[in-house]
């Protein structure tokens, strides 16, 4: 399904109220919920782990899209699968055995995603396209929400060409706004993650603000 999907990132939501925040954005039309896991090692920030993902899960009706910015990945796959992740995305830079990691994610019953940092070329995932369901193109250096978008349309277009007929999503993550989203979609993206652009407009007590921001993208 290559229709456009909006995936609000709860990294920009109220950490004391994830349940209400997820319900609010879904009520306003969010397609997926993007969940950013950071370990303070692969990226210079710490967010939360599988226990928090499990606590959020019952508050999400749709797809729980878990972005693992952690290394190593393999020891934690089962815990995130048990937490109810629908998609588990690992970074191609997270270790020497990304192929094994992606196989293990599928074996655990999740869809498998592979993410690329801005400095990593599209060719790094070329030999993985038959074993993934999603390629995540980072348009910021991962670690923090609210950063400036790095334009990478040629890389997105290269990936779309490489993917061909395979049922593989292209997700864009970082600095997506009403201004930067169109060039990503034009280049071939079908999933847009947005943290600040969706959540900065309001709190869970003001779901309409989310809706306006989501639809504006
Ligand atoms: C960055 C995260 C992103 C981030 C996006 O490390 O992977 O998902 O939350 O936030 P915005 O949309 O604010 O750049
Ligand atoms: Zn992310």
From TrEMBL:
Protein's UniProt name: Ribulose-phosphate 3-epimerase
Residues of the signal peptide: none
Species of provenance: Sulfitobacter alexandrii
UniProt xrefs under CDD domains: RPE (cd00429)
UniProt entry keywords in alphabetical sequence: Carbohydrate metabolism, Cobalt, Isomerase, Manganese, Metal-binding, Zinc
Residue sites binding a divalent metal cation per the record: 34, 36, 67, 173
GO biological process, one term: pentose-phosphate shunt
Catalytic-site annotation from UniProt: 36 (proton acceptor), 173 (proton donor)
Cofactor: Co(2+); a divalent metal cation; Fe(2+); Zn(2+)
Domain of life of the organism encoding this protein: Bacteria
Broad enzyme group: isomerase
Gene: rpe
């Amino acid at each position: 399904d290559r229709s456009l999907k909006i995936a609000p990132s709860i990294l920009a939501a109220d950490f004391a109220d994830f349940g209400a925040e997820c319900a609010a954005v879904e009520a306003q039309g969010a397609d997926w919920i993007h969940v950013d896991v950071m370990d303070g090692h692969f990226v210079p920030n710490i967010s939360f782990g599988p226990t928090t993902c499990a606590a959020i899960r019952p508050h999400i009706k749709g797809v729980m899209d878990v972005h693992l910015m952690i290394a190593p990945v393999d020891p934690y796959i089962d815990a995130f699968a048990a937490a109810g992740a629908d998609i588990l995305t690992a970074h191609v830079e997270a270790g020497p055995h990304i192929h094994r990691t992606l196989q293990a994610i599928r074996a655990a019953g999740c869809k498998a995603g592979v993410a690329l940092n801005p400095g990593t070329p599209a060719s790094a995932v070329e030999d993985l396209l038959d074993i993934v369901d999603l390629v995540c193109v980072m348009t910021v250096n991962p670690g923090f929400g609210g950063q400036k978008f790095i334009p990478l349309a040629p890389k997105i277009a290269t990936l779309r060409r490489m993917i061909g007929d395979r049922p593989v999503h292209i997700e864009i993550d970082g600095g997506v706004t009403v201004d930067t989203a169109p060039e990503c979609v034009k280049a071939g993206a079908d999933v847009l993650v947005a943290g600040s652009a969706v959540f900065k407009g309001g709190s869970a007590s003001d779901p309409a603000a989310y809706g306006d921001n989501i639809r504006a993208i």
